[in-house]
Amino acid sequence: MPLPTARRAKRRGPRRFTSRDLAVIGVLLGIPILLELALIWGPTLASIGLSFTNWDGIGDIHWVGIDNYKTLFTDYPPFWPAVRNNLLWVAFLGLVATPFGLLLAVLLDKGVRFSRFYQSTLYMPVVLSLAIVGFIAQLVFSRDQGALNAILANKNDPVDWLGDPDLNIWMVLLAAAWRHTGYVMILYLAGLKSVDPSLKEAAAIDGASETQTFFRVVLPTLRPVNIIVGVITVIEALRAFDIVYAINHGRNGLELLSVLVTDNIIGEASRIGFGSAIAVVLLTVSLGFIVTYLVQELRGGKKG
Amino acid sequence: MAPSSSGHRISRRALLRGTAAGAGAVALPTLLTACGGPGNEVKIGSNASDAVPRKAFAEVFDAYEKKSDKKVKVNTVNHEAFQEGINRYLKGTPDDVFMWFAGYRMQFFAEQGQLAEISDLWKGFDGFSDALKAQSTGKDGKQYLVPYYYYPWAVFYRKSVFAQRGYEVPKTFDEFRALAKRMDKDGLDAIAFGDKDGWPAMGTFDYLNMRANGYDFHISLMGGKESWTDPKVRNVFDLWRGLMPYHQKGANGRTWQEAAQSLAQKKSGMAVFGLPHPGQQFSAADRDDLDFFPFPEIDSAYGQDAVEAPIDGFLLAKKSKRQKEGKELMKYLATPAAEEIYLKRDPNNIAVNDKASTSSYNALQKKAVDLVSNAKQISQFMDRDTRPDFASQVMIRAIQQFINKPNDIDSLTKDIESQKKTIFASD
């Protein structure tokens, strides 16, 4: 007897909202949903729609089917370099800059001398906008007047760090990593501070080496931080724009999808349809990462 | 400061653009439309955002206010932002009269019905050459532009370097090449060259094409009517390739300012530039040492007839409700007096009106006047003579690629041609 009653009571629970409650909930949920629809889904769907047209921003909108995509894949030379460079950003920041930031964080966490000093020095670039980092990179890497070539003193045959399309992407990645490393380091430092020292002690007592302790004990407990760092790294890589735009408008070896979108959409004779098609490609790439992340996140959640 | 040229992205500004572009583009239409006024007023949309031209224009408009009973209201917008927002500007509520460029870039908007015809004004104009009239005329044969000033392109050099080493000004391409070779032997970079901003090298292409194939072919090529795989175009790249060893290396990593500095420092011998460009990088003491000669002749059939001289001027918006007042102002701007006031303040350009006094000109300006007044045809610069999206999306990249790999002409021209077809077909 008591069982069905309890069930009924449970079922009845949610129904106890008065109509006023429902109105409040409706408004409070409705506003953000509307905003989300208008500000995020609206433009996204509009981009997808426009990517099938050849709209120039002024005239009539003509439907052209998948022509923009065909052109993009076959007859737009900067496209594939841009895709390649975007992936290179993800790989470089993810496999080089981020681990390096982690290494610095571990070293500083061990309490080397002057660690506060190093910490603030390494973090310093993070306060700079990437556009500024771009200007600084030009001062350093410029072929004729840059600091690096002056130091190398190779006057007769100076290296064209930013003009050589085989070389400049690496210089830019280096400059971007300069900033990214500090960012990652500070996140990991915060994480490392919160690792329970008794875990490390226990591992030491069990006879684990320092490396083993780090990879088997410390790193797994940093999981939440790892996820945040991973997300930030991917976002930074995909939204990269200002540094290459500051250096040479993202041309001659520094192409990125975000630059191509801007180039086509902003300007006198805008190719808004075509630019939208590139934006859709960028969206697809981003969705790939977002979905992977969410799936992992949900699986991880279940396990936990 | 250069009152800035066409797509001539002056690098310092271009750098700022990286961060400002987004915000500027969004804010522009609102800024431009946020002005209404009484009837006795003419509104001008100005892209003269640099200090020197801005002041110079202010004086011109002051003079007009004193002369007429009209008030002039100037809306100055950052040069780059103005260019980028021009579509939305004209679609929204543009000012009555606004600054813009001659040639294809004007015709483009005339064709879209955004500009008011001013052929009647032109009937009363005096002192404008036929070449100027052609550059102010739309594809429908009607006039739309009041030209104001221009700045020719030529090959710049230092008199003292030429005197010291006994170089002579070359007249033909062979002499030019021989001179470059000699400079190379003398340890100079023969031709200073910087194309990091993407546009400066276009001037060299334009001249090579006009000298080798003539003005008409050049304009027709720019208009999308010729094939880029035509042997004539391949020949232009081939001529250029032959000169490449004498160009400063690493041009894609060098701004035009740095190239001009190498000319000033006597590290390089010559450079293809527009009138406002090299002078800015020379110290005041050295400026008198700067000189130029017209781009050498390649085919005697075309000689040195064509001169590349971008023209800036004023247009009347079709949407303007003050057509009469707008035209009155434009009539004034076409007078020699109006140009003299401006050029006294900004000596980096020359007046378009033959009747304008040249007494305040420096030697270089006087020489520039000779150059353009003897020109049989005047071109505008690649990014003004063709569709802007073609120039910026295809040609900048193509020329930079050519600078990297000058030997791969066939695939380069094929690439340009197939992209050209897509872009020119989009209308």
From TrEMBL, chain A:
GO-annotated biological processes: transmembrane transport
Species: Streptomyces rapamycinicus (strain ATCC 29253 / DSM 41530 / NRRL 5491 / AYB-994)
Compartments, as annotated in UniProt: Cell membrane
UniProt keyword annotations, A-Z: Cell membrane, Membrane, Transmembrane, Transmembrane helix, Transport
Similarity remark: Belongs to the binding-protein-dependent transport system permease family.
InterPro entries registered for this protein in UniProt: ABC_transporter_permease (IPR051393), MetI-like (IPR000515), MetI-like_sf (IPR035906)
Pfam families: BPD_transp_1
Transmembrane segments: 21-41, 87-108, 120-141, 169-190, 272-295
Location (main, coarse): membrane
Entry membrane topology: Multi-pass membrane protein
PROSITE patterns, sorted: ABC_TM1
CDD domains listed in its UniProt record: TM_PBP2
Gene Ontology terms: cellular component: plasma membrane
Record-annotated ABC transmembrane type-1 domain positions: 83-295
UniProt protein name: ABC transporter permease
UniProtKB/TrEMBL annotation, chain B:
Coiled-coil parts of chain: none
Pfam families: SBP_bac_1 (PF01547)
Superkingdom of the organism of origin: Bacteria
SUPFAM superfamilies (alphabetical): Periplasmic binding protein-like II
Keywords of the record: Sugar transport, Transport
Alphabetized Gene3D superfamilies for the sequence: Periplasmic binding protein-like II
InterPro entries reported in the protein's UniProt record: Bact_solute-bd_prot1, SBP, TAT_signal
Family the entry assigns: Belongs to the bacterial solute-binding protein 1 family.
PANTHER family listed in its UniProt record: ARABINOSE-BINDING PROTEIN-RELATED, OSMOPROTECTIVE COMPOUNDS-BINDING PROTEIN GGTB
Protein name: Multiple sugar transport system substrate-binding protein
Lineage: Bacteria, Bacillati, Actinomycetota, Actinomycetes, Kitasatosporales
